[in-house]
Structures are given as structure tokens and as C-alpha cells.
Amino acid sequence: MKKILSIILASVIMLVPFSAFADEDYFTDEQKEYYKNLGLQGTTVNVYNWGEYISDGSDGLMDVVHEFERLTGAKVNYTNFESNENMYSKLVGGGVSYDVIAPSDYMIERLIDENMLLPLDYDNIPNFDLIRDDCKGCYYDPEDKYTVAFNTGLTALIYNKKLVKEEPDSWSVLWDEQYKGKVLMFNNSRDAFAVAQSLLGQDLNSTSEQDWVDAAELLAKQKDAVNPVYVMDEIFNLMESGEYAFATYYSGDYVLMSENTDDLGYCFPKEGVNIFWDAFCVPTCAQNKKGAEAFINFMHEPQVAFDNEEYIYYASANKTVENNEESSLYKNEAIYPSNPPDSQPFKNLPQNILELQSSLWNQVKSGKLSEKSKADEKMIYTASTVIAALVVIILFAAFINKKRKDKEQDLSDLYGQKN
User: Fold this and answer.
1) Which pLDDT value is given to residue 269?
2) How far apart are CA 178 and CA 69, in angstroms?
3) For residues 105 and 124, is the Cβ–Cβ distance under 8 A?
4) Which residue of 71, 256, 289, 375 lies most exposed, with the fewest beta carbons within 10 A?
């Protein structure tokens, strides 16, 4: 439906002078004056955010970056990351200067622990008053010193009604061999491990190395059973194509995909799901902290937050949006479930677990933990052992044969001397 509306809107735009749409009046005179007087004209704000995570002017919604630039006179350099780990690697690698980032809860906790975030000046973020109570004082920033929540959501199991025989209620269907080649799996280690951990009844934040090994072995069994395709944002086209039976992703994205096809369903598996918060913060590499705080505040202007939710389809942390009956997501059970599922947040993990997780994930994806790989290794080991034994036997036989020939030569020499 959204695609159809986009086509219609594009057609209308082609018939109407651009100037009629160039500066649509979304804001009050007071808001305009506030941003104009910040003194950001001519500065640059470097924003590093998730892909597909800000309203860009499509579907008749606000072009958020354009409107911020128009009101402040600043330039926004906007780039994307596809996982928390990818974003973290970019930050620790150095040589970058981001003013605003939007990591998830457990990564925020890690960044705080490693002194990689700057405390916020909330005098520059008056819209913090509009944040939902359940998005303040969260475990990753209990004193609200470093962050302003952006969105919150839940992981979900998405399925194709035409390819799935029974409505699922468990993550276990992702191991069903009848769906071999028809499963899409998270292409990031934390979310992927969480699916296996939930099935095993583990704490998603376990510090037991054996727990992570067990979860990795379960993921390896999945690779043997169904050979999943590991994806992130590619899931939209792949699930909408109708070729795949199951996918693991976020409930907000399910709602967005379901608007383009009636063939999709979702569930919150009985074993539990991950609940997450994404929040804005300012890294220590920032060069324009005032501009960063202005951008964070702008993202929670009621109309901006509303259009962002309409574009992203995740639950907004802004209470004016949650309570807005005009929202297409108002009381949507996938976004704001009236009976929330069992859930656990991700938390920062000790370094030894992070390193183990990374190593195990690489082994899972490369197939090194699969039963076939283990069988191949066993066969190679057995063959190597047999070959080594044969070499020893051959060398020993050669040694015995040489000793025999040497003895015969000695006897021959002895009899020759006597004659």
C-alpha cells in the first residue's frame, strides 16, 4: 500500500511546481525561532544511524534531515551502519568523527564502560520531557546521563502463510528440515545467539562460556538442517518475494513488510524474545556537540517523531506519538502489545565472552562447527593416522631389511676372509 501511495505522490509532484512542496510548514514560529537562534549556521553535524531509520521524505512524510538543515542552517552528513558491532568497530578504529550515534542498549552500556560517550547537556534537549517513562532511567543509562531513547521494539518470528503448514509459536521451526533453504536468519551474532539461547532456556546475558558453546552448537545444527541465509536489511525484499518460509527480525519491520503483502504473519515465540532500546548519544570523537544535542532534540519534536514512527514502524520513545490516535500504529499489537511477551534485554558482556562469541559466530557461519565439517575432520584425522602408521611400518620394514642385509654382508665378508 505504501509503495502505491508513493507512486501516486510522485506523479502528483511531477505535475505541481517544486516550490509548492519545498518548505512545507511543519513547525510553529516558536520552534523556528528556537532552532534559528542556536547559532549552528555553517556548521556540520555528522550523524551515524541505522539504515532505513529516519523519515526521508518518501510516502508523503517529512524529510527530517532537510527540515533540520532548513531550520538551523547547519549541514547534516548522514551515514548508516547495519549492526552495533559494525558501528563499534568504526568508532574504536579511529579516524572518524561522528557527532550523533544511535546504538542499541547493550552497546550503549559497553560504550559507557569504555568511556566512549560524552555526558549530555539536557538544557539543550528540552524535548527530553516528552520521552515515555518506560524509556527513561533504563538499565544501560540509569541516571539518563548519556542518552535519549529513540525507539524501542521486540524481536519476532516472521513467516509466510503460504509456505508454512501450521501457525508457529516456537523458535524451533527454524530447525525443521522441511524448510531447508527457506529460512532467513539474523546476520549479527547477538541476535542470532539469542534465538538459540532462548530455545535452550539460557539467560541472554550468560557469562558461562559453556552456555555460549552450547548455543553455537545449536546454531551449527541449524546450519546442517536448513542451511539458513544470514541477512539484515535484505530481509524486506526476500520475505516480500514469497520465496522464504521464515525469518527472524524485528516486529516493527514485520508490520512494514506486511503492508506490501498479505502473505506474512508473525508471532512472539513462547521461549521468549529480545526487547531493545535504540538511543541517541554523543561519542567522544564528536566535533560539534551543540549541533548533536540540537539534532537529538529535533528528533523528538512531536511532528518529527510522528513522521519517523510512520516511516520506521518501531515504537517511538516519544509519548506524544504513542498516544496519537492518528498514528497508523496506534495500539498495533506487534508494536505496542497489550499482552507483552516474555522478553530479556541484551546487556554488555565481559571481554572473554565477547571474544568467545565472535569466534564461535565465525565458526558457525563458516560451517566449521557443523556435523559434516566434524565428520570431514574425523575422516581426515583417521586417514592421517592410517597414513602415518603405514609410513612407520614402511620405515620399520626398511630398517629391518637394511639390518638383515648388513648382517648378510658381514657374514659374507667373514667367510671370504677365511677362504
Assistant:
1) 98
2) 52
3) no
4) 375
